[in-house]
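Notes from the 1:1 (GR / supervisor)

We went over the backlog. Supervisor wanted to see one worked example end to end before approving the batch request, so GR pasted a single chain during the call. The sequence is below; no edits were made to it. Supervisor asked that the structure be written out right there so they could see what the output format looks like.
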Amino acid sequence: MNYTGCGNSVNVANHHVIRFIMDSLRYWVEVMHVDGFRFDLASVLGREGSGFDASAGFFDAVSADPVLNRVKLIAEPWDLGTYQVGNFPIDWSEWNGKFRDTARKFVKGDAGQMQDLARRLTGSADLYGDDGRSAYNSVNFVTCHDGFTLYDLVAYNGKHNEANLENNNDGTNDNNSWNCGWEGESTDPDVIALRKQQVKNLICQLLFSAGTPMILGGDEFLRTQNGNNNAYCQDNPLSWFDWNRVKQNEDMVVFFRKVIALTRKYTTLQSRIFLTGVDRDGNGIPDISWFGTDGQAPQWGNSEARTLSYRLDGAEEKSAAGDYQLFIIFNADYRAQGVDLPVLQGKRWYRVIDTSLAAGADFSEDGQEVEVKPGNVYIANQRSTVVLLGK
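Structure output shown during the call:
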C-alpha cells in the first residue's frame, strides 16, 4: 500500500485508506479479541512524500485511537528498498533483523562479531534507546517464516529453491548459514552432533538476551524445508510440519523446554530493560559485567576473538530463586578455551548448561547442578555455550 503522491487528492485518498484500515483493526480487537498485530512490510505504512516518517498519518491515527493504542503493535521494519529497524514510533515493537544477523554470524564463527553481539544481548539500546523505548521493543529472533528454518541454517551453506521453479534465483543469498561440514541431510554422527550443538547455541543466545524472544514453530524438533529459504509457494510436505521429527529429535525438544524453564526461574534472563553495567541494588555487582577468557575485560578490538563471557546479577530480583549470579560463556571458536571465572563471595559455581555435552548431560536437572571444580576456571569446549550458576 503506497501513500506517496502530491496534492490534496492524495491527502483525501490517504484519509479514506487509513480509515478503512483502522476500522478493520478495531474489528479484530473488539469483536475477535486479538491481542495485537504484526505488520508485514510495515515500513510502507510510514511512507510519506519524502520517504519513511515515524510521524506518518497511519502511525498518528493508531496512537490516538483508544482501542488500538493499547494493543501490541509489531513491525517487520522493511519493505522493498528500505529498512527502518529502530525507527518506528515509541509504542511499536520491531523484528530485530540485526539481532538475527549477528547471532548467525557469531555462532558460525565469523570474525569481528563480539562487540555487536554484546549490543544485541543487552537489548539493542543503539536501536531503541534514543526515543524512550526499552529492550522490550526489540523482538529478537534467529529464524522466522521467511528464510531458512533453524535446522536448515546449520545444514546448508546455500539455498536450494529448485522446487520453486525459478532456477534457484528466488530467495535471499545472504543467509549467514553453515552446514557443519556436509550439505544437506547426513548420517555422520559427528555432523549430526555438531548441528544439534549449534542449534542449542543459537537458542541459548536468543532466550538469554534482553528483549522479547520469538521462536519459529518447528525449530524445537529440527523442522526442515530441505534447504528451501523461500517456501511460501510450497503447500506440500516440503513446508508442512513432519511430526515424526518430534520423536526423532526428542532430545532437542527437551532442551528447548529446559531453557525456557530456566528463563522463567531466573528472571534476570527475561530483562525488558537495557542492561548497562549499572549496580542497581547496591550490592557492588553491576547488572551485567563482561569478561574475556583471562577474567579481564574482553578484547573488543580483536576481530579474531570469538569467546565472550558475562555475569548477570540476580540479587535485585528478590524472587523465589534467591540471591544468585549467572555466568554465561559463548565460545564460537573452533578451539576449546579456558575461561577464568569471577570470584564468588560465600558462593560456588555450578554448571547448568554445557551444549557440548551429550543429551542429558548438556542441561543439569533442577537441584542437580554440577559444582565446578576447581572453581576458578571452566574449559569451554569448541563451539559451545556454558551457563554457570553462582549460589
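Supervisor's comment: Confidence is low (pLDDT under 50) at residues 1-13.
Batch request approved.
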